[in-house]
Amino acid sequence: MHNVEKSTLVAADSVSARVGSGRRFLLCRPSHFDVTFEINPWMNRENRPDRERSFSEWEGLRQALEGCGAQTFAQDSVEGLSDMVFPADIAVVRGGRFLRAKFRHEERRAEAAYGAAWLTTNGFAELEPLTDAEAFLEGGDVLAFADALVAGHGFRTTRSAHEHMAAVFQSEVVSIQLRDPRLYHLDMSFCPLDSRTAIMAPSAWDEKSRKRVLDLVPDPLVVSEAEAMNFSANSVVIGKNVVMSACSDGLAAALEARGITVVVSSIGEFLKAGGGIRCMTLDLNLGSR
Ligand code: ARG
Predict the structure, then answer these.
(1) CA–CA distance from 246 to each of 231, 260, 266 (Å)?
(2) For the chain, what is the total number of helices (H) and then of strands (E)?
(3) Could you state, in order of their start, the residue ranges of all structural domains in the chain?
(4) Which of 28, 68, 185, 247 is catalytic?
(5) Which tens digits make up the pLDDT trace of 88-147?
(6) Catalytic residue of the set 28, 68, 247, 279
């Protein structure tokens, strides 16, 4: 029905030849994807996504992830939930257990229950949800580096949610204060690559948080503001591959020098909603490579 284009992979054959690393991701079909409200600075109701292109980009991303050896699952979207194509936000999933999101904006709140239903049906155990009326949690604010969870707060997620997350996952949570409204989730300024390296845009964080991340990450790969605004940090790492929506020559060289292969998959229609590749994929075991 939809025109499926090949994603712009670097040498597709060399990608599919790579050995799988057991990574699994949940995606959500863009059947009801649209920009009908504005809850981040990228969204503009006058600039709506194209349906055919959204489908072909989404299929391209799915193929790129699978080409890197990951397994993907697709959930159907629900009418009226136009941001449901960004399932990274619906929960934090680690070690077979999940903590459901509590969305900041009314427009996205119903997504959490659909996400939790999919996870439960597929064998993941739900941890005690956040109940505090003042607390919010969105999965886009949570990543893992080494053994710790690294979580943003300031725009969507609240600091109080970090404490709850630490308790239910029995894990250290490194808290990062976000300060750039364009990079409103942590996954837009921080992308761990392995236990030493992470792509990062520290200008998105307050001074104390920068110091904390630089103490934690031995080999920081700092991107320019332009690269950050290109969603370079909003990428998905699968073994030694990083799937990105765009990559400058300089960043590609820095990644290749570290033995990491860049796979480019264009998702321009989704950028209109302020979401990139990491937002479009829920990692079903945060912190695995
Ligand atoms: N339009 C969505 C929102 O504003 C985009 C979600 C981006 N997700 C992410 N993990 N960065 O909530």
Answers:
(1) 7, 15, 7
(2) 8, 15
(3) 21-33+70-229+278-283
(4) 185
(5) 999 999 999 999 999 999 999 999 999 999 999 999 999 999 999 999 999 999 999 999
(6) 279
